[in-house]
Design a protein that fits this description.
With about 350 residues, the protein is an alpha/beta fold. The strands form three sheets. The chain has a seven-stranded mixed beta sheet, with helices on both faces. About 30% of the residues lie in helices and about 25% in strands. It has three domains: about 120 residues, Rossmann fold (3-Layer(aba) Sandwich); about 90 residues, Udp-n-acetylmuramoylalanyl-d-glutamate--2,6- Diaminopimelate Ligase, Chain: A, domain 1 (3-Layer(aba) Sandwich); about 120 residues, CobE/GbiG C-terminal domain (Nucleotidyltransferase, domain 5, 2-Layer Sandwich), CATH 3.30.420.
């Protein structure tokens, strides 16, 4: 469910419908022209023209639910549209709540899912027109969306989506990440799981879907595929009090470039909990928006590591920080053992194992 949802009603019936919606979506905020003013404190009353109010809400909410005609909504938002990655979900509901229409940002914006939910709540008919949904096939731009996956090359989404809905052959290669994004036993008939990335180059396949944390360099594969980056990599970091944000960034970049890994697949950072937090590590986590998890030394010393260090034990009281913390937090496989960046940084990388 979207965090910021605005409901705009401009008729008496619309106000009633908005009130019902708020019972099911308690965080929704209702906007109504001031000419209908009453003592209802759950409503935000506005004096400006509806066109001006819609413009303001369009840029500040994740979803707008408009309880008036579709044609009016089209006219009001037409000059506000930017792109499907940033535009809010737009829903349109008629004055009798017969239909709930997903009008804009059906997939990435979540308008389709929200329309179905509201239609079910209002006992209305959801109107969904996106091709992948009506054909009950894979929505290329939504794969792994709920799992936090990132699309690496958005420019290929439209092309591969067209192949998908036209039931042309699509190859899917997945070597990491959650396997629950689709029921593999019920893939669309035009979709084939392949075990080798090179298979995607076969002319049999019009498009490819790649789910990997590895950098893809083959131009033929890149030209016909959409690449998804699941959150699979945990970076364990051993640091001194004076290790800077740039020290960490340069070290991680060097390791990822050398090993052909994608930054977009970083799930989290891990390290030891010190008496005083290390500013550089906090800054790195905040700037790159990567979650940071710190562990007590008593937790880390229980972890068996391939490269224990007497030097680390001298300073931290345990024989490993980078390897131990990444193994502990990921519960996965150590794919890059401890790498040293003297004098104040070590880095190890683990891959999360998904069933």
């Amino acid at each position: 469910m979207k965090d910021k949802i605005a409901v705009i009603a401009i008729t008496k019936n619309g106000i009633t419908i908005a009130g019902v919606i708020k019972k099911y979506i308690t965080n929704a905020e209702i906007y109504v022209p001031n000419k209908f003013y009453n003592e209802d404190s759950t409503i935000i009353w506005f004096k400006e023209p509806t066109q001006k109010k819609i413009s303001d809400l369009f840029n500040s909410y994740d979803a707008l639910i408009c309880i008036f005609s579709l044609g009016a909504v089209v006219r009001l938002i037409s000059n506000l549209l930017k792109d499907k990655k940033t535009d809010p979900a737009i829903l349109v509901i008629d004055d009798k709540a017969t239909f709930v229409i997903s009008a804009l940002s059906g997939h990435l914006g979540g308008a389709n899912a929200l329309s179905r939910y509201i239609a079910d709540s209002l006992k209305s008919i959801p109107v969904i027109t996106t091709a992948a949904d009506v054909n009950k096939t894979i929505s290329v731009d939504l794969i792994g969306n709920e799992l936090g996956w990132i699309i690496d090359n958005y420019e290929n989404v439209t092309k591969v989506s067209a192949h998908m809905v036209n039931e042309e052959k699509i190859a899917i290669f997945q070597d990491v990440g959650e396997r629950t994004w689709w029921d593999k036993e019920n893939l669309p008939s035009n979709v084939v799981m392949v075990k080798d990335l090179e298979n995607i180059k076969d002319n049999l396949y019009k498009g490819g879907i790649i789910i990997s944390d590895k950098i893809i360099t083959d131009n033929v594969i890149l030209s016909k595929s959409v690449i998804y980056r699941p959150k699979t990599l945990v970076i364990g970091i051993g640091i001194h009090w004076d290790t800077s944000k740039d020290d960490i960034l340069n070290g991680v970049k060097a390791i990822f470039e050398k090993n052909g890994l994608s930054f977009a697949s970083i799930k989290s950072l891990s390290s030891i909990k010190k008496k005083i937090r290390v500013k550089g590590l906090d800054e790195f986590s905040k700037e790159l928006q990567i979650p940071l998890f710190l562990f007590e030394k008593e937790e880390l010393e229980k972890i068996s590591v391939p490269n224990p260090s007497d030097t680390v034990k001298k300073f931290e009281g345990i024989t490993s920080v980078s390897e131990a913390s990444s193994i502990l937090h990921s519960r996965g496989t150590l794919i890059i053992p401890k790498q040293k960046f003297p004098p104040n940084l070590t880095i190890a990388v683990c891959r999360v194992n998904f069933a």
